[in-house]
Design goal:
The longest helix has 16 residues. This protein has one domain: 3-Layer(aba) Sandwich (Rossmann fold), CATH 3.40.50.360. Helix 1 packs parallel to helix 6. Helix 1 links the parallel strand 2 and strand 3. The strands form two sheets. The chain has a six-stranded mixed β-sheet, with helices on both faces. Strands 5-6 form a two-stranded antiparallel ribbon. The two termini are 23 Å apart. The chain contains six helices and eight strands, in the order ββαβαβαβββααβα.
């Protein structure tokens, strides 16, 4: 589902940036939703045009059945998602970390949408390097998890962060602007959660 503007209507596009917020959780509600809302509020306060893509409301098979060797038709929701990514100048990904990595739904979204010919292309059939096709875009990552920062980064190696920045976005030409962790979620006080929401709003306003 793609949401445009504050009431579902397409807003007028002026001097502000075109921002696509991608909510990468299958849950129907929760703190990631609140973070996305706060981020959008901050972005709109600076007259940016914001649209939202809620992966949990899209209808698609998240499994790349034949790998990249066999074509798999894109569902209408994924074709629309590609159009929205092309439209955007800036992307904001909001998602939880589960088992140290990306939620399966978000991983499946990348597998199905960031395809050769859309996100990258090989220069020659034998070439192991590829040319990024989504250059000129930036991204913010707003991530929730239950670990302390030092434990996730130093003891576990922050695999989801490395994958997003170095293995997905960067190679496709998208420059990560901010990677903000909201953690540990478990046991966080209401005061702490409100401070996190304020930080998300600030990030949206700083685009």
């Amino acid at each position: 589902m793609v949401e445009s503007g504050k009431s579902g209507a397409t807003p007028l596009e002026g001097d502000g940036k075109r921002i696509l917020v991608i909510l990468g959780t299958p849950k129907a509600d929760g703190f990631c939703h609140a973070l996305a809302d706060a981020y959008q509020h901050g972005a709109r306060s600076r007259d940016h045009v914001v649209r939202t893509l809620k992966l949990g409301e899209l209808r698609f098979d998240p499994v790349l059945r034949g790998g990249y060797e066999r074509s798999q038709d894109l569902e209408p929701d994924l074709l629309e998602a590609q159009r929205q990514v092309h439209w955007a100048q800036h992307l904001a990904f909001v998602y939880p970390i589960w088992w140290g990595g990306l939620p399966a739904l978000l991983q499946g979204f990348f597998d199905r949408v960031f395809l050769p010919g859309f996100a990258f292309r090989y220069r020659t059939p034998q070439d192991r390097e590829w040319e990024p096709l989504l250059g000129g875009r930036s991204a913010d990552l707003l991530v929730t998890h239950d670990q302390t920062h030092w434990r996730y980064r130093l003891r576990q190696g922050a695999p989801a962060h490395r994958q997003m920045v170095r293995c997905i976005l960067g190679p496709c030409g998208i420059a990560t602007r901010h990677l903000e962790e909201f953690s540990p979620m478990r046991g966080a006080s209401e005061e702490q959660r409100q401070a996190w929401l304020k930080r998300a709003e600030q990030l949206g306003a700083q685009v």
